[in-house]
From TrEMBL:
It comes from Pedobacter riviphilus. Its main location: membrane. It is a multi-pass membrane protein. This is Ammonium transporter. It comes from the Bacteria. InterPro entries: Ammonium/urea_transptr, Ammonium_transpt, Ammonium_transpt_CS, NH4_transpt_AmtB-like_dom.
Amino acid sequence: MSKFSFKQFAPFAILMIVAIFALFIPLLPNFDEGKYSGPDIAFILIAAALVFLMTPGLAFFYGGMVHRKNVLSTMIKSVVAAGVITVLWTVVGFSLAFGDTIGGFIGNPSTFLFFKGVNSGAPHLQGGSDLTIPLSLFAVFQLMFAIITPGLVVGAVAERIRFTSYILFIVLFAIFVYSPLAHWTWHPQGFLFKMGVLDFAGGTVVHISAGMAALAGALVLKRRKSHLEHKEVPPANIPYVLIGTGLLWFGWFGFNAGSALSAGSLAVSAFLTTNTAAGAAGLSWMFFDVARGKKPSVLGFCIGAVVGLVAITPGAGFVSISSSIFIGAIAAVISNLVVTWKQKTSLDDTLDVFPCHGVGGIVGMLLTGVFATKTVNAAGADGLFYGNPAFFITQLKGAVIVIIFSFVVSFVIFKLVNLINPIRVSEEEEELGLDASQHDEKYSQGTLLVEERAIYIEKNSPLTESIS
């Protein structure tokens, strides 16, 4: 039995303390069924489930692209966020994001502490209009966004970040980056919301924040040994990437269409713009590669489609379906060029999270400022393309604020985590692979099949028979 370590015991102890405290939260009656729309409840329940599906989808998407010895460690870092953020969101995260505002910058942590009063809460947020769904359903829908956001950061720091340090990063990121941004952008009293910034489903809150955190993490953790030695790391399982892309694309319908928060025409429009942008971006990335002399690749289409999904997210309910073709196609080209530029630098963003999610989110926010139209959503504003440069400037200001805030705070968090617990694995652990060094597990699918096939061929070849 290993020697007792306070650092090893601390996560379990904290979870048990939280679990015990939860027993003493006063029970309140459930919401009044008569206040809400049954069809809207059914729609958002399905949308929330679809968004949750994106997290294992992301695990497959990332897991398929890393080295075989790091597949499991990469996948679990995406999926473990479902546990960490669920508990944190219930305890204080939802309050920080959507509790009674404190100056438009953060929610009061006591408003919904341990989900106190969420089931019986009024069907609106402070200063907002009434919801047609229970506050508890709104809370769980927003939880799914909070889960996947830190999971996106994994791709930038894959193959070298210590698992326990990553868990601590998730907690601090959710409290000090994600929750404030959600409050600024989506709370009716949030300062970006009141400034007129439009982010339909998470261009700033999810993608720019994750992209800038990814950039900060790559800078703090520095380069992998394989990156320093300019070794090509072959993807472990490209079919995994295809599966992940399909799950992400499918789940994104809940991500964007569900953000309408009701089963109406706005949700239909968001669904269509989402699908159209993804298709256009996947083709754009692939065809742009071909135009530059490369062969059309599976990875290229998959990555491009995800970039399109990222780029359309902020404007999914504000732009026309035809505009979404342009948004997807242009975002894919810009992200592709940034990836090419990044490969010529010393930046080791393992799976190009910053070029794809960070840059894709920025492009999406700015193009929302260009192509948003009241024809699609009366609650929105006309963009630059329709003669309103003021709204484009508002989107630009909002994007710049989020970029600076997300990068600076995430950089500080990574540095702080490194002081508490070394954030990077040792050179020996990196060489061994994080599956074995961090989890005492190994990814063997494929390898065993290849070895068994080789043995079979060797035993049954004519040469073997003639020798015997």
